Amino acid sequence: MAIRKLLCVLVTCALLAPQVKGATAPLGGFIPFAGIGLTDEFKNASTDLSGTFFLADPETSIVGNPLSGGGSPYYDIALLDTGAATHILTSQADGPNGFDIHGNNFDGDNIQQIGGATGLINLEINNPLAIYAGGLKNFTANGATLTKNPSANLRGQSSVATLSAPTEWKLPNILGLPMAAQHSITIKNSEPQIFELGGRTVRTPEVEFDDLGIGGGSITRRAPLKIRPGSSFIAGPLYIQNLDILGGNFNFHENPLSPTIIENGGLFIDVDMARGTKSLQDKELLFDTGADLTVVSEITAARLGFDPILDTPDFVLEVEGSGGVSAGIPGFYLDELNIDTVGGTFTMQRVPIAVLDVTNPNDPGNIIDGILGMHLFTGRDLVIDANPSIGQGGTGPSLYISDPVVENHTWTSTVSQAIFQTPTNWTANGVPNQMWVAELRNTAIPTQFVNLTGNSIVNQLVVAGGQNSTLRLQLNGTQKLTTFGETRIENGGIVSLNDSGTRLDAQFVNIEGGTLRGNGSVFVGTGPITGVVRNLSGRIEPGNGIGALEIVGDYSNLVNGTLAIQLGGTTPGQFDLLEVDRFAFLSGTLEVSLVNFTPAVGNMFTFLTTGEGVSGAFDNLVLPAGFQWGVDYLSDSVVLKVLGLGTSGDFDSDGDVDGHDFLLWQRNPSVGDLADWQSNYGVGAVLSSATVVPEPTGIVSILVAAALLVIKRRPL
């Protein structure tokens, strides 16, 4: 069985020249999905007299017999990823309940090793077949089943060798660069698709495929794309045929030596970046629809005045890969990022970026300057037209960028109790919908409560108060609030999930000075890609009083974030619980308070549980006085323990009275009496080193694997 190595990056009408300047980029962008199907259409050396059977043929409609393991054609969703060198099927899609690659005799004998930002993984190379794709408005979801609407037409490629991933691959199916080499692609945030598939919310812009060379239609703003190398795009996608002549196999299409790729191919775009007094002009970044955040190499960051090794980052990231998460990726904010365009400018300010060296797919063995992420294009339509320029004149390969297609609406109600869906409470005098960027902000009265009357969907949501005011958005019963993109909770904003059946469902949640509390569930992500609840600088308070809050996704408590836990007894249900479906990344502050309860030495409280692991530890502990506390960081949970009785003046309850206690008193004199600290300073210094440090086995090891660049912020 041959093993080869493939380097690829796996990382979501204007008539006048528009101007885009001064807009800020969010902490994450959209992730585009399409529906895919396979058929048995391919060429071989016997039927293809031209001798180019290994070249992919573009198809404008479905040709051949559908592949499936049952009687009906099988369809699935796939991430549209122009940064991926080829098409990849998950083990589920490959298997007997999917396309049944083995049962239909399309599995090959050779192995392809692929590499991304976080490692390598081996995948199987399939025999050539045909792959077709279309936007998800052409499909109907029922449970875990995706069905193509009868009238829908799909476009694709025949004579294509795909890859099949092993079971440890945690990413979705991938529709890679070869598709963009033979079809133009329109990503329509003006037509957001939101639906349930397999118990997960899929949220994606509509995706359309058309002929190369169609241009941007009514979109005038155009950024020239650089297709690298141009000769490979002109030649088209191809696989390396089987050359096992000595072994007696003259069926050259069987057991190909590589999947179908654009040889050393990639789409690049010129970008200008500035940070302080440093700036870079015309840097070529890889245009990657599979990356939701922009990435720059370490040397590019250094040239912008940020040393990723010596300097303190603005934030630290997690990079998600097929086998797990790679931690400790530094990030910082650019003051400005400009994309070179004609037909209107495109400039973003305060742009978050990650620092990570990624192999150049156009020049393997070297590092690219960076990757352009989809967060820059939130709320906009894009057209990707990689039509090669071969001397015929006209427009070359281009990315077309529309003006914002979403609607910005602001809350106007000034009464203490108001309804979210009441039209007169908004500047638009309408009911919030999936095209709304809804800014729910109270600056008029000290306290305002906003209630839902039923389920609601918006595009993006901001919940905030004012300098001396709060706004509390409440969900009750079984109400569900869905956002297509970000939910952001700012200073003075509170999102309260009052009952266990309530659900906040977003691509990601950022808590920036506000509070998330309650007994319900927070679902984050899109389809098979998991999202994150990031507590950047606010509070998470499980329960209304004592209770349990569930996060279906990842949880990241950053350096300025606080997790507040109440203890009212020793049995489950008598103390707060934060349940995390996947990983918990910990830093910041743990704040614990007692509710009509006096703990005893030996009591233990498992207040945080995870499905896949705990990484990091809280930097600051604010614990009830009068006790010595210990915090154990286990592989899948965090446990608070009462180790003994405390000492007066030990305000942080870590078993000693030292300078940390004085600093805590300075910040919050209500924690205790300064005279107690003065009397007992230095007591317990030897014991403290063994009480509140993580156990060595408690810090989870995260595997490094081939990466899809879906970036998750984590604590410093």
UniProtKB/TrEMBL annotation:
InterPro entries named among the record's database cross-references: Aspartic_peptidase_AS (IPR001969), Peptidase_A2_cat (IPR001995), Peptidase_aspartic_dom_sf (IPR021109), Retropepsin-like_bacterial (IPR034122)
One MF annotation (Gene Ontology) recorded for this entry: aspartic-type endopeptidase activity
Keyword Cell division: no
Pfam families associated with the record: Asp_protease_2
Domain Peptidase A2: 283-324
CDD domains: retropepsin_like_bacteria (cd05483)
GO aspect biological process, one term: proteolysis
Keywords per UniProt: Hydrolase, Signal
Signal sequence, start to end: 1-22
The protein, known as: Peptidase A2 domain-containing protein
Organism, scientific name: Bythopirellula goksoeyrii
